[in-house]
Amino acid sequence: MLKTFPKGGIHPEENKLTSTKEIKKLPTPKIVYVPISQHIGIPSEIIVAKKEKVQIGQVIAKSAGFVSSNIHAPVAGTVTKLDKIIDSSGYKKQCIVIKTDEKDPSNYEDIVYPLKTEIILSPKEILQRITDSGIVGLGGATFPSHVKLNVNKDKKIDHLLINGVECEPYLTADHRLMLERAKEIVIGVKILLHALHIEKAIIGIENNKKNAIQNFKKLTKNDKGIQVASLAVKYPQGGEKQLVRAVLKREVPKNRLPLDVGVIVHNVGTIYAIYQAVQHNKPLIERVVTVTGKKLEDPSNYWVKIGTPIQNLLDEVGGIPENTSKILNGGPMMGKAVKDTHAPVTKATSGIVLIADDEASRGKAINCIRCGECVYVCPMGLEPHLLMNLTEKHLWERAKSEDIMTCIECGSCSYVCPSHRPLLDYILFGKKLSKN
What we know:
Blueprint: E1 23-25, E2 31-35, E3 45-46, E4 53-54, E5 59-62, E6 71-72, E7 77-86, E8 92-100, H1 123-132, H2 145-149, E9 159-163, H3 173-180, H4 182-196, E10 201-206, H5 210-220, E11 226-231, H6 240-248, E12 263-267, H7 268-280, E13 286-292, E14 300-305, H8 310-316, E15 324-329, E16 336-337, E17 351-356, H9 357-360, H10 373-377, H11 384-392, H12 396-401, H13 412-416, H14 423-434
Parallel strand pairs: 1-14, 9-10, 9-12, 10-11, 13-17
Antiparallel strand pairs: 2-8, 3-5, 4-7, 5-6, 7-8, 13-14, 15-16, 15-17
């Protein structure tokens, strides 16, 4: 029987339109807009000046604290602005604007890195390299990876869990990476086992990616320290707490982390970035992005330089089709609507999804009929209908006592509500105000 988490969950239509599309290289943009806050924590500190020339991989904004991350130049060129630029959600964020030097051949080199299996760096050196390279969680949370790996001596870690679930509908960036860069990912896993002084790693993959499961089983068949777990297809199995419960049957306590039950969780994209950093000294300046939608001419997966305007991706797939209702940064369950397509791709951008009018219509909200569906599907065991009501009435303390802060914002409740009530919208609002 396939493993899964026991509480809640839903089965939205998968729409994995790009699962067979190999990752292409997006052409180098003429200008990049690099935000200084692409991670959870303190925004990075700009260390370049206007009119300064920069090289690919150069640190342009330095980590401003322990929970922060370095930012690197994705292209060689000239800094033209240090200004606030509208991001994909419509807010102005501090950016470093770099005009690409079109005469610099390094901007157009398609470097093929040889597979490097020998791990030379010590655990301490590995952690420093990850810190220097600006690696953050590429599954969406963008938590600085060096923070997650800096484990206190009082914490006993016995498992490294690799998240290859990619349960969001439409997105296939992780799936393609697992097919095309599996050998590097396995070495990345071994790098972290060495750095953490532990012996067991499990790669969790949902059963709708059978080719990825077979790929990793073949590569790890003689390695007792690395296992592959086939998981049932259920959203939101990619959530850390749900994945830990599904694979290891360990319950992460409320307001605690997987670390507290002896587990560190990393996304497959993060593992690949760690491999690149440790084995080839390459900082995080690009990532895989799925660009997809049912009406697109050529939905595909791309290697995209951080700071590339989203519009460049849309142009590459044939432009925005008529009757497009929404453009999402991320998947349809947890993604956010894009307000301006000239906003940049960041380390958090796993996909750009175009939703047509006939898919995006939201029914008119009516009174709750007390069906209990939102409670049944909540993977955290919450009562979404109650949390929405408390938010509507501005009862912040009561909402906090009803565990509104433990909501993982998966959207399952809104998805199943027969009354079309905007449950998650209100819960997000309530979470924001309950923090104050």
